[in-house]
């Protein structure tokens, strides 16, 4: 996969996220996707990723904006930086109570690409910033 194709793949993945199209996201992922959760564990496989997204969609409604995608020369590694704008819908275990609070924070994802599909997704954002925002209401 070349740089242009990799950039298009990442674009499709992020566009599917913004549309709430989990199946569209999964179509961009390798069967054995490695998913590194922000300040959490590592999960492997599309089924685990589908479960993760179902859980996320129950607790949060999010959209990404100000997206910048960067891809290395051979199309094997990529990163996306963006702003997450969201609403906290339902209380998640170990986090402050949800009450429809809005939030906005910078975030990023690192990607690896193999055989034309995303084989690793590693997400980073400042959880302390998110908590401070939702605690303010």
Notes on the structure:
With 137 residues, the protein is of the alpha+beta class. It has a single domain, classed as Nuclear Transport Factor 2, Chain: A (Roll), CATH 3.10.450.50. The mean pLDDT is 97.
The name CATH uses for the topology is: Nuclear Transport Factor 2, Chain: A
Helicity range of the residues? 25-40%
Strand-residue proportion: 35-45%
Cα distance spanning the termini:
44 Å
List the total number of helices.
4
Strand order of the largest sheet: 2-1-6-5-4-3
Overall strand count: 6
Label the structural class: alpha+beta
Quick check: average pLDDT?
A: 97
CATH-scheme architecture = Roll
Low-confidence segments, given as residue ranges, are none
CATH structural class: Alpha Beta
Q: Report Rg.
A: 15 Å
In the residues, how many domains can be counted?
A: 1
Characterize the main sheet: 6 strands, mixed
Shape: globular
Order of helices and strands: HHEEHEEEEH
Could you outline the blueprint of secondary structure elements for this entry?
Layout: H1 3-19, H2 22-27, E1 29-36, E2 42-44, H3 46-59, E3 60-71, E4 77-88, E5 102-114, E6 117-125, H4 127-136
Parallel strand pairs: 1-6
Antiparallel strand pairs: 1-2, 3-4, 4-5, 5-6
